[in-house]
């Protein structure tokens, strides 16, 4: 069945089967009826209090109220912007400056930043949700090319970029995921990725539109290995959605296999390269499950290609391919001048209905990456790749964007904030790789004169100051102090040279 409207597809379960479970916490199960009631109440509140279509921030972690706010916003015609609760203040400030939201639903306690937007606390949200909504009230939800959500991602200038995803973009993705991956009505999905990472869209919307449920797995459980593997079998998760990095952690537990966790039927990976060894291990551990590698950037709505992992596939390719492109989309391999490259490695360009309209309030960056091709919105991914008999093969990045534990980071973003630290004169951050995977971020730093007796004390002070402006996963693990940074012939910092140095051994 093709879904035509996201909100209607979700609400039909709340109307038809209000007791159907939608969100399964360890101590409480929420139903579709509750989700509909709460999101209706939030939509009514928004409709009454603010102008339609201004964006709304939803601040928190993996709480049920986050979902209710997302849906409430969409029902009332607003794009929502998920921000994870532990995001450093300076970063939140930059996002607010770009987005200019009308309201902030603060499911977790607000970080104290001053803003023009009205801040709605959890108590207030809960109060709003106790109000009955008149059945005569009609909503004007987000439709067609209107923005459904905005996800902020690392930007080279140090200012995050807000990718705008429309209702049409989201429909294109959801209809594909519900068709090509063996998902059936009412399945239980793992919800592990933070809502501010578009990987979460891979579980939230396919689950909710097909009457399925989400089982959140919070950081405290993930960080506690023993609890994680004690609870995992009891969660009865059927659809696993995660980065390969998270799977690598899980595979360290020998009992994580089809015998002990026998509910698992489908594995969906996205967000970074799926190492061949991980894929191989999974095939062996879960012989009855179906495992898929999918690929795509936030700018083209989560993923645009996918392939099922089989032994034949692994035997044929030295790196796991990123799959066949979804039916409504075209992928072109192009050179720098946007000319087609036949049978050669070039830039992966995606054109189709799931390609975003661009970055919020950022025409310059939008013009750099987005254009129209053969009448379709197109996006230059910055990924190198080639097409072989319809199969897309990934060949690394063409710029200095990297993935660390699935998180997308522009190295220039870290450089920019590192150079603003009071002890730092100049800095360049480079990745250390192992088997195509970033293991560590290494910072080369020219420090100002300082009074620290030992370098590690200087490093500690730098890390501390840096943590107020970048996400914790962007803080380099290793610092190397130098008198000056090497330059290329045209006077730029020679990052490639530094990368070679770090990766030489
Ligand atoms: P994000 O916008 O956070 O989803 O990051 C998108 C980027 O992650 C892509 O442009 C790729 O560089 C990388 N990526 C995503 N999925 C895969 C995959 N299956 N294999 C290799 N790289 C991937």
Automatic annotation (TrEMBL):
As for family, the record states: Belongs to the ATP-dependent AMP-binding enzyme family. DltA subfamily.
Per UniProt, D-alanine binds at 198, 302, 492
The record ties this protein, via InterPro entries, to: AA_adenyl_dom, AMP-bd_C, AMP-bd_C_sf, AMP-binding_CS, AMP-dep_synth/lig_dom, ANL_N_sf, DltA, DltA-like
Q: Which UniProt keywords apply?
A: ATP-binding, Cytoplasm, Ligase, Nucleotide-binding
Its pathway is: Cell wall biogenesis; lipoteichoic acid biosynthesis
UniProt EC number: 6.2.1.54
Q: Name one GO biological process term.
A: lipoteichoic acid biosynthetic process
Q: Where does ATP bind?
A: 153-154, 293-298, 383, 394-397, 492
Q: Where is the AMP-dependent synthetase/ligase domain positioned along the sequence?
A: 13-360
NCBIfam families in UniProt: AA-adenyl-dom (TIGR01733), D-ala-DACP-lig (TIGR01734), PRK04813.1 (NF003417)
Name of the protein this chain belongs to: D-alanine--D-alanyl carrier protein ligase
Instruction: Name all AMP-binding enzyme C-terminal domain ranges.
Output: 414-492
Where, subcellularly, is it found?
Cytoplasm
| Annotated catalysed reactions | holo-[D-alanyl-carrier protein] + D-alanine + ATP = D-alanyl-[D-alanyl-carrier protein] + AMP + diphosphate
Identify the GO cellular component terms for this protein.
cytoplasm
- Primary localisation category: cytoplasm
User: From the Swiss-Prot or TrEMBL record, what is one GO molecular function term?
Assistant: D-alanine [D-alanyl carrier protein] ligase activity
- Role according to the record: Catalyzes the first step in the D-alanylation of lipoteichoic acid (LTA), the activation of D-alanine and its transfer onto the D-alanyl carrier protein (Dcp) DltC. In an ATP-dependent two-step reaction, forms a high energy D-alanyl-AMP intermediate, followed by transfer of the D-alanyl residue as a thiol ester to the phosphopantheinyl prosthetic group of the Dcp. D-alanylation of LTA plays an important role in modulating the properties of the cell wall in Gram-positive bacteria, influencing the net charge of the cell wall.
PANTHER family xrefs: ENZYME, PUTATIVE (JCVI)-RELATED (PTHR45398:SF1), PTHR45398
Q: Which species?
A: Candidatus Enterococcus palustris
């Amino acid at each position: 069945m093709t879904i035509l409207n996201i909100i209607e597809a979700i609400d039909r379960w709340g109307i038809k089967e209000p007791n159907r479970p939608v969100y399964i916490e360890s101590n409480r199960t929420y139903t579709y009826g509750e989700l509909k009631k709460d999101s209706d109440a939030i939509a009514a509140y928004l409709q009454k209090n603010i102008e339609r279509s201004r964006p709304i921030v939803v601040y928190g972690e993996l709480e049920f109220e986050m979902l209710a706010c997302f849906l409430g916003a969409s029902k009332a015609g607003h794009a929502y912007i998920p921000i994870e609760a532990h995001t450093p203040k300076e970063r939140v400030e930059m996002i607010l400056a770009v987005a200019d939201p009308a309201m902030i639903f603060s499911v977790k306690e607000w970080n104290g930043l001053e803003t023009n937007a009205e801040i709605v606390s959890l108590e207030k949200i809960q109060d709003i949700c106790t109000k009955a909504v008149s059945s005569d009230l009609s909503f004007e939800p987000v439709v067609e090319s209107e923005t459904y959500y905005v996800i902020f991602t690392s930007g080279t200038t140090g200012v995050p970029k807000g990718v705008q995803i429309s209702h049409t973009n989201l429909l294109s993705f959801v209809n594909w995921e519900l068709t090509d991956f063996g998902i059936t009505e009412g399945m239980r999905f793992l919800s592990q990725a933070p809502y501010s990472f578009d990987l979460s869209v891979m579980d939230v919307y396919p689950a909710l539109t097909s009457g399925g449920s989400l089982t959140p797995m919070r950081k405290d459980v993930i960080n506690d290995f023993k609890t994680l593997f004690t609870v995992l079998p009891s969660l009865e998760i059927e659809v696993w959605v995660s980065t390969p990095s998270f799977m690598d952690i899980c595979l360290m537990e020998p009992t994580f296999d089809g015998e002990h966790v026998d509910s698992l039927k489908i594995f969906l990976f996205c967000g970074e390269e799926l190492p061949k060894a991980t894929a191989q291990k999974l095939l062996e551990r879960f012989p009855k499950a179906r495992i898929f590698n999918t690929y795509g950037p936030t700018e083209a709505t989560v993923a645009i290609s996918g392939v099922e992992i089989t032994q034949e596939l692994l035997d044929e390719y030295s790196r796991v391919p990123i799959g066949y492109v979804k039916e409504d989309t075209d992928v072109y391999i192009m050179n720098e001048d946007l000319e087609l490259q036949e049978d050669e490695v070039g830039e992966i360009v995606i054109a189709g209905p799931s390609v975003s309209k661009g970055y919020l309030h950022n025409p310059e960056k939008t013009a750099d990456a987005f254009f129209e091709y053969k009448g379709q919105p197109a996006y230059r991914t910055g990924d190198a790749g080639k097409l072989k008999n319809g199969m897309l093969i990934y060949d690394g990045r063409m710029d200095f964007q990297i993935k660390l534990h699935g998180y997308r980071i522009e190295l220039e973003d870290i450089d920019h904030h590192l150079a603003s630290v009071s002890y730092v004169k100049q800095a360049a951050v480079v990745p250390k790789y192992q088997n195509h995977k970033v293991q560590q971020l290494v910072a080369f730093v020219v420090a100002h004169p300082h009074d620290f007796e030992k370098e590690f004390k200087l490093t500690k002070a730098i890390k501390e100051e840096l943590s107020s402006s970048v996400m914790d996963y962007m803080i380099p693990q290793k610092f190397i102090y130098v008198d000056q940074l090497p330059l290329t012939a045209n006077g730029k910092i020679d990052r490639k040279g530094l990368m070679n140095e770090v990766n030489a051994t």
